[in-house]
Every structure is written in structure tokens, then in C-alpha cells.
Amino acid sequence: MSDRLQKVIAHAGVASRRKAEKLIAAGHVKVNGQVVKELGTKVSSTDEVKVDEVPIAKEPPVYYLLYKPRGVITAVTDDKHRKTVVDILEEVPERIYPVGRLDYDTSGLLILTNDGDLDNQLTHPKYEVEKTYVAKVKGIVTNDDLKRLRTGVMVDGRKTSKAKTNLIRTNRESSIVSLTIHEGRNHQVKKMFESIAHPVEKLSRETYGFLTLRGLQPGEYRRLKPHEVEELKELSEKVKR
Hints:
Helices cover 25% and strands 30% of the residues. It is an enzyme of class 5 (isomerase). One of its GO terms (cellular component) is cytosol.
């Protein structure tokens, strides 16, 4: 039995499927001693696959939920030597990577895994997993502002999908707003609030699908329970259909 090279690399926990494709195209991958750049290449269990000269090995899939603190990079490594989310989980022996990303100055719920298939399903735009953010924004948010967010605003030339909103509280200078979206465009939440003239001062992702931060403090993490992993897979399949 054979599988596509990028799938084998992802299943080994080296990188996500899309990152694996970039590694292949850039010439970082060898099969049986030969550099392979063709994405459709099939390999079997008897083939030797190396990424940057390091042989890959199939790892058991693992799944973690991290309460990402502010001031931490959502990446495996950082060329500026800043702390990454993987550094926080340094005691985890498997080669895990984050599912999606949160900005450097954004805190909240982040999943890390070595399951390339699940990563692909959860981060691909068509799967539409709901995520709830709580934002502290400048100024007093009005009902008209919330209505604009709910019906969609223009971000990078495209209108956002319908969102769910809740005004938690306001004072003279700022407002706390809950925003639930299922898209994942770059800096989307910040840009949505900028479009209604209420720039974000502080942002946290509070939920991801059915998962919450309950019981965790910033910088803490836990292993997902088997039933949570199954629910995530069912959620992505349900949305896929």
C-alpha cells in the first residue's frame, strides 16, 4: 500500500500537510536517497523518506489544548528566537505543531497535534469551524456596530460571513465584545473591528468548536480526551458535508 509523500510526512508529525507540500517543492525531501519535488509522488512503507536528511518515523497521533499566552509565537520555530507555542510544550516527545494560528499579541485556545489529516480538516476554509473571540476595543460599541458585524463587513475587499455578537460591557473609553465567526482569514477579527472604527486593544480566543479554556490558565495545557478528539473529527466531517 502506498500514500502520497506529503501525507506520509504529515502523519509522521514533521509538519502539516500544506507545510509538507512546501518542504517537498523546496527540495527538502529525499526518497531513497533522491530529492523529490513532485507533490503527487507515492511512497510505501519500505521507502526511506528523509526531511532535511533526517529519516521520518510514524508517530502515534497526539492532541493537546493550550491556553496560549500573549507574547508567544504560534510556530514550531522562530528565526528571531522568540518563544513559540511548541517551547511551552517542550516535555511532549512527539513532533507537534499548531493547528492554525493566533497572533503574537493574542491569547487563547490553540490546538497542537501531529495529525496532519485533522489539521487539514480544521484549517481548510471550507470546513467552517466556529470560534469565539473576546475583544477589548476602543470606544463605545453601539447596536448598529454589532449589526454590521453580524451581517458582514468588508475585509481585504471581501465581505465577511455572518457573525454572532454580544456586547459584554462598556465604559467611557472602551468596550468588551464577544464575536463568533467560522472563517479564518489573516488578522480577521482585528480587521473586522477596525472596519467599524473600534480598533482592538486586547484579544483572546475563548472557544474552538465545542472546546473551551475551562480549568486552564495562560501558559497551561492539557491532552485532549479521546472523546474530544472523536468529536473534533466528527465536527469537521459534519461541516465538510
